[in-house]
Amino acid sequence: MRPTRTLWNLMGSLQNVIMVLSSVTIVALILVQVLLRYFFMMPLMGVEELACLCGFWLYFIGAANGARERSHIKADLLNVFIKNERWLSAAKALSSLILLVLATLFVEWTFSYLRWSVKSWERSPALSIPMVYAQASLLVSAVLMLFYFFVEFLDYVRQVLGYSPFNPELYQSEQECE
Questions:
Q1: pLDDT in tens, 74-100
Q2: 130 - beta bridge partners?
Q3: Which of 162, 161, 160, 178 lies closest to 170 in space, CA to CA?
Q4: pTM for this one?
Q5: C-alpha to C-alpha distance for 90 and 68, rounded to whole angstroms
């Protein structure tokens, strides 16, 4: 197995673990809060804060995973107007380049925001948890999306040059066969 395949699969697996753990934690926190509040009449303060912190990681790693799988929301009408495969790939490459520039700006903004968050060391109201733990998910997600958009851009450039498309799903099926 190639190192790039291993890295790609490892990144996907790590993202899936984070998303599953975040989801399970959020469900467990809400279940505990409902049981305590409505059945035992003893509400627990701060459960919403913990769920929100986990939600940050769930949502933003989920966004990065959407970029990895290329299942993020797009308004892709290029297929309707451009019938030539090479021209279509060129238009998609341009679109991906614009997305790459925007993702680079997003990384810069989230890095600045995280730096500010570390300096200000703001804390959640009830539990005094440093918000930097939740806000770090923005930077991690932005870096992952930048990487995945770069891979997508390279894929379309390869297609413009006449090479076959890069297909991340092939890594999964090849890995299962080995």
A1: 767 777 788 888 888 899 999 999 999
A2: 123
A3: 178
A4: 0.86
A5: 20
